[in-house]
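Extended Data, record NADP/NAD-dependent aldehyde dehydrogenase PuuC
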Amino acid sequence: MSTTVPTNLAEWQALADTLSFETRAYINDTFVDAQRGATLSTVNPATGEVLAEVASCDDADAELATHAARQAFDRGEWSRRAPAQRKATLLELAALMQAHRHELALLDTLDMGKPITSALGDIDGAIGCLRYTAESIDKLYGEVAPTGDQHLGLIVREPLGVVVSIVPWNFPLMMTAWKIAPALAAGNSVILKPSEKSPLSALRLAQLSQQAGLPAGVFQVLPGYGHTVGKALALSMQVDCLAFTGSTQVGKQLMQYAGQSNLKRVYLECGGKSPNIIFADCKNLDVAAQNAAAAIFHNQGEVCIAGSRLLVENSIRHAFVEKVVDAAAAMQPGDPLDPQSFMGAMVDNTQYQRVLDYIRQGQEEGATLRTGGQPLDSSGLFIPPTVFDDVTPAMTIGREEIFGPVLSVFGFDTEEEALTLANDSDYGLAAAVWSQDIDRIMRVSRKLHSGQVYVNNWAGPDMTVPFGGVKQSGNGRDKSLHSLDEYTEIKTIWMALQT
Ligand code: NAD
């Protein structure tokens, strides 16, 4: 594939036309059809075109893969390899991803409809995650306990064994990297179950992992449905850890599967309904409005940390919502292969209909539609930026995760009221505070029930800080050195010494 960066729609389209897809599962160093021969169609939601028929794995494939993963772990080629050597292999994988950056971005764009510019950012994020984590692993030390001289107490970190990563479709390769990079760096054998809606970049990653020299069985990819292969992996007695990103509903099921099987660790990154709080003393309302719009319309609103609840102090609410509506006007959906498109297509017809249903409910329940609301007249699944004002917590659109380009605006008069509104949610993934009052910023930040709080910005922070939620947004932490805690076990070695 050419290394020239395409600059416009025609060039990206030309590049897309040259792509070929790996459609088979990757089990024990070999690309294979599903054992029972089943396939699933993966569809480009911007055009309705079937891109490929991909292996649809089930319990039979899960059995093979978990066996290979366990054997690989026990052989120790990877699990007991020196961290510096694991680092070298993972950096090689990152280099291969960098060399195939455009192709990987195209696969995600074609598979799930996100704009190509956004997909390129995701691939850079995935590569950055792999590099950061690989670089960390040979710099983490164990501990020596403060014993008397008749004993030596060592606290060592060991890989868990077999880790299953189950990921969603909204950031296919980036969510994959957040899960597999720390798990592999720590020495585990990893089985990746990509979403049935976006398996193509995961299978290309499998090819690159083979090229990078990961030993057989250490990294495997099983495409297929959640209720078939996902469930079989989650119930497996061979699996030591489930690392999941996806909906709260499926997260709850995974905890049950762990309880029904072997009490495997379960780390969940689930849904959100994140509040973005704008106080009247915010220094630059134009910047805040631009951010508020991008916080919900980026990636078509199909973002776990979408700022889907905008809480605005009533004294500025009317003027502020005007600014948000103006900013939204420049964020219309378009051909995902066009670098000018801010939004792309909704991932599939189910999600498209679901979002339109929420828009209808918003109107029926009495919210004020300020912009959007009608899908584009197109064969693709395009929904424009939609803003509802006068939303209350009793309304469905004020409570439920829509996972689409729909913003719900609430008004408030006091800081206390803003906090009550913000925390009145089953979720607790992200939140933001816009103000110039440092005392207020700290007061509100500490009182928000949220895994992360952004102050005077709404952007995904970099790799140096953890990412994850509280309440029904889950319990896991991706990114940063803390992500390695999830994929390692602490072991005590207590030695008696002759003195
Ligand atoms: P989903 O829960 O439907 O699916 C996620 C994954 O779980 C898919 O691979 C799916 O096949 C699998 N799955 C489904 N049922 C399963 C079962 N019974 N057993 C095992 N696996 C099963 O979610 P989605 O629609 O793919 O993604 C959207 C959701 O993901 C949203 O709720 C969003 O908020 C959430 N999300 C969260 C984060 C985060 O970091 N908190 C990031 C991205 C997306």
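Summary. The first strand starts at residue 25 and ends at 27.
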